[in-house]
């Protein structure tokens, strides 16, 4: 055999051997077993398993066409105390690019409105919204009018991007106001953010907070308030730190113990609870029952208003008290030397008010005016309006689902903020973590009627021949 033939034979043998080794035996011989080795699971911490589980669920939802869960979040808005507890405001931004405004936060109404740059009356020296400066503003050209116990506002509805505490709502309907009653706005406040339910919205539109809550944007379906006290401070400035407003969570550093929740007593409209008990100086006071006991918990109201018989019974427990006269009609005076202790229950614990909050002001060397006054409500509004005089004494939680209100005792941290002077928070524009698109706007009013809030009257019944009423009548009669 030649050498070349030997070399060729060797190559063929090597090739056959290599193929035999590389091809697996897919069919084991009869009686042959195959040993399977189980891999040991990777060691994972509980946190790692949680991350894996979330990623697995989200990936499958995307793979099979489901909408991935929206990021839920929480936000904080620092408040400003204006004029020694007269009102509390926070900041909110509107438009593209966003411009920040200071607005009263009001659980007793449901509309968002801000002074417009074309405002003719009652808006001087307050920052105003300019629709021409926002690329996302849409003029809906629907008239807007709302009346409060302290005044009225009128203008036109539009929609734009609204941002607050890290949340953004696109196409949010609000009112650009061109007429405001004198004294309703005090610089640097430019408007009001209603935090009540849609059913009492004068415009008929879904409120900013309700859009966020109903979309599941919040980690928890709650918004909360902690309010500071400066009414008894001799060094209080026109603006002071006012506490905090949160969306999506409770700040457990601001309260102690459990939060006592009470369900709303009726279909959500105002935030209404039933006032079940009231004591003065430790003595029980006779108050109305049934629907006459309904109380709106209202951050936009400074004091506490109630039925005349109940208010009379409260002051009957205070020796030396007398009904007020003139400008003080409906109020009561009492000796300033009296430390009045009032406590209120809404079906759960009894929540005490400090004597400082009961004392509204001093009118003579010996006489003071109480913060509880007589009020007669109408248009289906509740008999009691419980405002900041009470709310400064509790940590309050307004829960979307189930619809309810919770109260808890303030923590030492929260109490320590009372009366401590400092610069108020500035209106800022923060980063956005969650964005929601509001549902399409529908016609909210028909030009002849509107939903009224607490202490309100139809159209212009309380403002006589003022320019504000003239303007709104023109709007409503133009057939918009």
Give the helices and strands, then pairings.
Elements: H1 3-22, H2 46-63, E1 75-82, E2 87-94, E3 99-106, E4 112-115, E5 138-148, E6 151-164, E7 167-180, E8 189-194, H3 208-214, E9 222-227, E10 239-247, E11 255-263, E12 272-274, E13 277-280, E14 283-284, E15 294-297, E16 304-306, H4 308-316, E17 322-323, E18 332-335, E19 342-345, E20 350-353, H5 355-358, E21 359-362, E22 367-370, E23 372-374, E24 384-386, H6 388-391, E25 395-399, E26 404-410, H7 412-415, E27 434-437, H8 467-477
Parallel strand pairs: 3-8, 4-7, 7-27, 15-24, 16-23
Antiparallel strand pairs: 1-2, 1-10, 2-3, 2-6, 4-8, 5-6, 6-7, 9-10, 9-25, 11-26, 12-15, 13-14, 13-19, 16-24, 17-18, 18-22, 19-20, 21-22, 25-26
Give a structural overview:
With 480 residues, the chain is α+β, with helices and mostly antiparallel strands. It is 16% helix and 33% strand. The chain has helices at 3-22, 46-63, 208-214, 308-316, 355-358, 388-391, 412-415, 467-477; strands spanning 75-82, 87-94, 99-106, 112-115, 138-148, 151-164, 167-180, 189-194, 222-227, 239-247, 255-263, 272-274, 277-280, 283-284, 294-297, 304-306, 322-323, 332-335, 342-345, 350-353, 359-362, 367-370, 372-374, 384-386, 395-399, 404-410, 434-437. It has a 6-stranded mixed beta barrel with strand order 2-3-8-4-7-6. A 5-stranded mixed beta sheet has the order 12-15-24-16-23. A 4-stranded antiparallel beta sheet has the order 14-13-19-20. The longest helix is centred in the first third of the chain and has 20 residues, at 3-22.
